[in-house]
Every structure is written in structure tokens, then in C-alpha cells.
Design brief:
The protein is of the alpha+beta class. Among the domains are: 49 residues; 72 residues, no CATH class; 98 residues, no CATH class; 89 residues, Alpha-Beta Plaits, CATH 3.30.70; 120 residues, no CATH class. 18% of the residues lie in helices and 29% in strands. The protein contains 13 helices and 36 strands. The strands form 8 sheets. The protein has a 7-stranded mixed beta sheet with strand order 13-12-16-9-6-7-36. Helix 1 packs across helix 2.
Length: 748
């Protein structure tokens, strides 16, 4: 790490003298003579001379001395963390055979390297995810016609309610809900013959796939508000939520509707992040979908557990079979999937350094060595020494003072302490940790990362030097989790708080300060509610002794920047960080906010010299900033108007008042007059409200806003225009999905 000379104070001798003379009338107004012969002026000049010398010396304090001071206080800087990515590999033009790729494959997004964490068997196929989406506005006559037609096919189920659906490809921007105990909450993966294998028979493809292992990747929306909380009970560690168990099926070759269960091995938890599945495919005879041998009637395709109809004329001839993914009924949870695909595997943004020569040991105490590449991934250093006694392995340790003596410790004394940012390795003095022997050769294997710059956008990872010819690579979703190392200036800001709480959670300020220090994440807001549990039905803190609830918000949320929600990994990181620091008798709940969705309609008159579109946008921005849950430095572009109202984000237990919003909109530059403002809570029927309460962990969130010239529009009209209404299926029992025949109609 380069040494930087901080400029703490650049005032010169003359500036110091002039500043002290200017202060004289304030403190001693009776002193009126400032001649050079005055004894007081002489003393001021003497102090200025001494002060200039002290400032000069202070300005020469190098960065490493500041870092050493932080280490003496046991305040090491937080290291950089590598980004993670979900990547897919495909074989578009290779032979009709499976190819196995080993772990550690190097991929690149431009000049940013990634490394795969597991092996992958690439099969000669392609995959695309589909699901059955119910029609939201079916015409009554159309629904009646299909109901009558269905009864003619299934007279035994004449009274069953039906739902019309269309087959839709899974879109990362929209997603679908994978749900247990819900109408067709399953995902269908169409296994397709490769586009370049037009002359290859489907039977030959099925023969090449039989008995092979198919790798799948699943990417959820981890901001699931129904499970958005983590709990640390008194004396226990982090409670793990019940893992969502998945079942994988193939439909039977006939039209019986039976399902063939496949063996699979799933890693990861969809409630917390990406999941990967290895599905073991059956024989070629079982890799046949209903309708391949005996074509189905268009109305019969997709009914019940039958796979959906594939309307795409380019994909339909390439269909090998359908893979059905569903949650087990015992899971009882809803997971929103944003992406699913084949040939997926995890990757991490690291670059491996092998066998770097660090020099030779001197046998002296407190030896130091330095790695040539930084920042180093914490825990990745593998250090060996080669000397007269052979090869010895050294282990990383957090504190050398906890290491045993080299006389009695043996191998356990061969330890070192790593500074990930500078790459410095420090060894013991013999009494606490062993000393590298004289003339022994030291070599290191380690990994480096690029921190936050490794969070590359979706589809940025495109190349891989070790890929076979004809293979392509992609990342369908953006990389996540990378963070830069903490700077010395940021570490120095923590000194006061550290000396106050000593890394222990006692007061509300301790909880707030330590939560913001959680490594690897950016925390924008922390609210501490002592003696409060969200599930107790109370809205005020102080009702549940022994419980502490933390409401946390991330600085960045790629899906909803104005109303961020922590995901499972974010909450888990905070819980793991706070667990060893809390009182053993304290029950800790870490959660996100419970947003109350609001609809707003504003009618205004702009100034004559301001275009309406500009004034309307200013009103929307002002209302969004006023109701923002984030502090003004994180979300509000112009806090000048609102800095005295919501500088730290919308306060908890504060109602949203219509007249207050009216006042905010009225003060927007370019607005002459607010004619009307309507406010309503998002409910089945929107009701104009003067005030909307926010209690407990509730915060307001604008889900729809309309600004027009003149009078404000009716809120129901605004909602219908912006999002439409959801239709509910009448009748009892589980609705039965019935496909809309594309050749007959296409309802939008």
C-alpha cells in the first residue's frame, strides 16, 4: 500500500500570528496595543513558531503509522470482500456429447477475473424457463365458452373452478412465484435441442442425455417481505429458517398426468440467495414429454400437472422434454424466482497467485514479509517454509498474542497475522508465535480481489481462456457482494465509538454503531427498538423486556432504490457480526421495514414560466424525498427544503398527513398553486384519507403517484391506469389451469 502524507493543517507562521491577533479583541478587549515591542505580541509569535513546528511534524505522519495506531487499539480495518456471480456455460457447436469442466475455471468480465467454485457437466442441450400466467382480465363470454368446452372434456369435474392461462417465458424483471399450496406455483424448464443441431434427431439427443447430470441455477428475489427477519434467541446462535425443499419431476410419456420423480442434489438456500441443483436424468425412454408420441388436443395441453403448451414455432420442434420444479408442500413458503437456467454454477471474483517467493527467514523475532499483490482475500493465504527441517505449513491467526510459544507449541505456534489491505505478514517473537528459521525459504499461495468493482453488470462475463472451442459463458444476473477495504480515515472515525462500547452491545448507541460496522455490507440506516418484538402485536418499544429489535436498511437496492429492503444475506451478515458481542440474555431480532403502500394524486397550477412536465417531476421528487426511508445523504438529491423535517429518513411511528404533503408540494419551485391532493392506503378499495398511521416497523412507500394540471384525478382511476386490477377466481376448491389456445385467441 503506498504511503500517503496527510495534510492535517497547512497554516504558516504568519497565518497563525494573524489568527491569534484577530482573537485578542474577543477575549481581552482591554488589550489595544499590538506593536512589535509589546510583550504579549512576543509571546504570540513564540507560540506561533512552536505551533508551526508541531504542525509540520504532524503533517509528516505516514499512513502506516495511522494504521499501526488503529491496530494498537484492536481496530483493524475491514478488508475487501470479493464479489460473487452466477454464470452459465453452454456448448453451442460442439459434438453431441457431455463435456466435464473442472472447478477453478478462469472467466473474465473485461479485465476483471472470476473463478468458478465447482465443476460442471455441460450437456448438448439448451434450456428456457416458462410458467403458466393466469389471465388478469378474461372476457366473461370467453371464460364461459372455455368453461363449457372444459366440461365437455372433463364431465367428472364439471363444477371445478377454472383459470385461463398463457405460457410465458420467465423474465428477470418480472419473475414468478414458486409457491407451495397454491395454484400451479411451479416452474417448467423446456429442455431443447441446440439451435445448431437441426439435422440431429431428438431420439439421438435423448440417448446422449440419458443417465447424465443436468446442472440448474435458480436466482430468487431475496427481499421476500414475508420472511424478512432474522432472530438471535437468548444464548443461541442464528436461527436458520426452514430450507425450501424442491422436487424435480418429468411428466410421463403418456397423457395420464403422472409425474416421474428425479433424484437431485441441491446446494444453497433460495430464501437467502442463489441455489444450484444437480438433477440426475433417467433413461432415454423416460425423456419423452406428453404429446411427443401422441399429439394432444390443444385444450388438453397444460391442464393440471401436464406441461404447458409451447407456442413458439421455433422452439416447439426442438423440445426434448419438460422439467418440472416445485416446492414441497411441507415448505409452506412462497419464493419469487427472477431467473432459472441450465448449466449454471457459482463463481467468485478472485485471482489466484501461486508459489510467490517472499524471501528467506532471518530467525529474528517479529519478522515481517509483504505479498506483492493486494488487496488479499482474508483467509486465503497458504504459507509454507522450506528449510533444514523440511517443509512446514503456517496458519493465519487474528491475534499473535494468543499464539503459543515455539518451544512448547510445535506446529500450532507456526502462525502469522495478515493485513489484507497492505499484504503484510507479521510473525511472532518466539514467546508468542514461532519465528521463521534462519535462511528458510518462504512461499505463499493466496487470492486477491477487486472489491466493489467486481460487482459487474449482468451479461458482463463473456470470456474464459480455459473454455473448449465453441463454448460460451454468460452471467444472467449482476454480480453481488463485493466491497472495498475500509480506509484509514474511516477507521479513525470509529475510535470514539470503540472506546465507548469496547466491542460490546449494551446501549442503543452500541447497537447502532456496531451494526453500521458490519463487514462486507453498506448499512444506510439503523433503528434500535429496545424491549420490542414485531410479532407481539405491540407498536411501542418497552413492552417486551429482554428483546431488542433492529430495523436496518441497505444503502443500495438494485430492484427498488427508493424503498430498499434488506435481503437474507444482508440480515445474516448482521446477525453473525452481532452474535458474539451481545449479552447472552438478550433476544435480538434483525429485520427490515414493513412498508405501507400509498397512492397519491396531485392537481396543480404551474408558474407561467415553467413547463408543466418540469413542475410535475419536481413535485414527484419532493414528495418521494419527503417520504423517503433513507437518510438525506443516501437518497435525497436536494435536502434543502426537507432537512429540518426528515434528515434521517421518515421517522418510525410517524403518521403520513395529507395536509403536510400538500405543504411540501406547495413549496416546490415552479408551482404556483396546489389545487388538490388525494392520499390513500393501497387496499382493494382506495379510500381518500386525511392521515395514514405508521406504527411499529412501518414506513410509507409511494407505489403510485399522478400529477396533472387542474384537479387531482380519482385514485381508483390512477391505479387502474398504472397497474390494473387482479381478478379472483370464483367458486370453491383449487382452480384448475386451462390454457388459452393461441390459434383461437390471444387475450392481452
Amino acid at each position: 500500500m503506498p504511503i500517503q502524507l496527510p495534510n492535517l493543517d497547512d497554516r504558516s507562521y504568519r497565518q497563525l500570528v494573524d489568527e491569534m491577533l484577530a482573537r485578542v479583541p474577543v477575549h481581552t478587549p482591554e488589550w489595544t496595543q499590538f506593536g512589535e515591542a509589546d510583550p504579549g505580541v512576543t509571546l504570540l509569535e513564540l507560540f506561533a513558531f512552536l505551533g508551526e513546528n508541531l504542525l509540520y511534524r504532524a503533517n509528516q505522519i505516514p499512513e502506516r503509522n495511522r494504521l499501526k495506531f488503529l491496530q494498537l487499539l484492536n481496530l483493524p480495518l475491514q478488508p475487501a470482500t470479493p464479489a460473487r456471480a452466477l454464470v452459465t456455460v453452454s456448448n453451442a457447436r460442439g459434438p453431441l456429447a457431455a463435456e466435464t469442466l473442472s472447478a477453478g475455471l478462469v472467466l473474465k468480465a473485461g479485465q476483471t477475473p472470476f473463478q468458478t467454485e465447482r465443476g460442471l457437466e455441460v450437456l448438448p442441450l439448451e434450456g428456457q424457463a416458462f410458467f403458466k400466467r393466469p389471465l388478469t382480465h378474461p372476457d366473461a363470454a370467453l371464460l364461459g365458452a372455455y368453461r363449457d368446452l372444459f366440461r365437455s372434456y372433463y364431465p367428472e369435474r364439471a363444477d371445478a373452478p377454472i383459470t385461463l392461462y398463457e405460457t410465458v417465458a420467465l423474465d428477470v424483471n418480472q419473475g414468478m412465484t414458486l409457491a407451495a399450496n397454491r395454484l400451479d406455483g411451479v416452474l417448467w424448464i423446456a429442455l431443447l435441442r441446440r439451435a445448431g443441431d437441426k439435422t440431429v434427431a431428438l431420439a439421438d439427443v435423448r440417448a446422449a442425455l440419458a443417465g447424465r447430470t443436468l446442472s440448474l441455477g435458480l436466482w430468487p428475489d431475496t427481499r421476500d417481505t414475508t420472511t424478512n427477519s432474522r432472530t438471535l434467541p437468548p444464548g443461541n446462535y442464528l436461527e436458520r429458517s426452514e430450507e425450501l425443499l424442491l422436487d424435480f419431476h418429468l411428466p410421463a410419456a403418456d397423457t395420464s398426468g403422472k409425474l416421474l420423480t428425479l433424484d437431485a442434489r441441491v446446494s444453497g438456500d433460495l430464501k437467502r440467495g442463489a441455489a444450484y441443483a444437480e438433477v440426475f436424468l433417467p433413461s432415454k425412454e423416460a425423456l419423452v414429454y406428453p404429446g411427443a408420441l401422441d399429439p394432444l388436443d390443444p385444450l388438453e395441453a397444460g391442464v393440471g400437472d401436464l406441461p404447458p403448451s409451447l407456442d413458439d414455432t421455433d422452439l416447439a420442434p426442438r423440445l426434448i422434454t419438460w422439467l418440472r420444479i416445485s416446492p414441497r408442500q411441507s415448505a409452506g413458503s412462497n419464493i419469487r424466482l427472477l431467473w432459472a437456467g441450465v448449466h449454471a454454477l457459482p463463481a467468485v471474483q478472485v485471482q489466484a497467485i501461486h508459489g510467490e517467493a517472499l524471501g528467506r527467514g532471518s530467525g529474528a523475532p517479529d519478522q515481517t514479509l509483504r505479498l506483492s499483490r493486494t488487496p488479499v482475500v482474508a483467509g486465503s493465504v497458504r504459507l509454507t517454509s522450506t528449510g533444514l527441517d523440511g517443509v512446514a505449513v503456517w496458519q493465519e491467526i487474528d491475534d499473535l498474542y494468543a499464539a503459543p510459544s515455539e518451544l512448547v507449541g510445535g506446529e500450532s505456534a507456526r502462525v502469522f497475522r495478515l493485513d489484507p489491505e497492505s499484504g503484510e505478514l507479521r510473525f511472532g517473537d518466539g514467546l508468542r508465535g514461532a519465528r521463521p528459521a534462519y535462511n528458510c525459504e518462504l512461499r505463499a499461495n493466496y487470492r486477491i480481489c477487486q472489491g466493489a468493482s467486481g460487482n459487474v453488470a449482468a451479461h458482463a462475463i463473456k470470456t474464459g481462456a480455459g473454455l473448449p472451442p465453441g463454448y460460451t459463458v454468460d452471467n444472467p444476473v449482476a454480480a453481488w457482494g463485493g466491497s472495498d477495504a475500509e480506509k484509514a480515515a474511516d477507521g479513525e472515525k470509529r475510535i470514539t465509538g470503540h472506546l465507548r462500547h469496547r466491542d460490546r452491545l449494551v446501549t442503543a448507541e452500541d447497537y447502532r454503531d456496531l451494526t453500521r460496522r458490519t463487514p462486507g455490507i453498506d448499512v444506510a440506516r439503523v433503528e434500535v427498538l429496545p424491549a420490542y418484538k414485531p410479532d407481539m402485536g405491540t407498536s411501542a418499544a418497552g413492552d417486551v423486556p429482554g428483546a431488542v429489535t433492529l430495523m436496518v436498511l441497505p444503502k443500495h437496492d438494485g430492484l427498488n432504490a427508493e424503498a430498499p429492503q434488506p435481503d437474507r444475506a444482508f440480515l445474516d451478515a448482521i446477525c453473525a457480526w452481532l452474535q458474539p458481542r451481545r449479552l447472552i440474555t438478550t433476544e435480538l431480532i434483525v429485520t427490515g421495514p414493513r412498508y405501507r403502500d400509498l397512492w397519491l394524486s396531485v392537481g396543480l397550477r404551474p408558474n407561467p414560466d415553467v413547463a408543466f412536465a418540469e413542475a410535475a417531476q419536481r413535485v414527484k421528487d419532493a414528495l418521494a424525498a419527503f417520504l423517503s426511508p433513507l437518510p438525506d445523504d443516501a437518497s435525497q438529491p436536494d435536502p434543502g427544503l426537507l432537512e429540518d423535517i426528515t434528515p434521517g429518513g421518515w421517522p418510525l411511528n410517524t403518521p403520513v398527513i395529507r395536509l403536510q404533503l400538500w405543504a411540501v408540494a406547495s413549496r416546490v419551485p415552479g408551482v404556483m398553486l396546489i389545487n388538490d391532493l388525494k392520499l390513500a392506503l393501497d387496499e382493494p378499495v382506495l379510500k381518500n384519507a386525511e392521515e395514514i398511521a405508521c406504527t411499529g416497523l412501518q414506513l410509507p412507500r409511494i407505489v403510485g403517484i399522478d400529477v396533472r394540471e387542474g384537479l387531482a384525478a380519482d385514485l381508483d382511476v390512477v391505479r387502474r391506469r398504472q397497474q390494473g386490477e387482479q381478478i379472483t377466481t370464483p367458486g370453491g376448491g383449487a382452480p384448475l389451469p386451462v390454457p388459452v389456445i393461441p390459434d383461437c385467441c390471444r387475450w392481452r
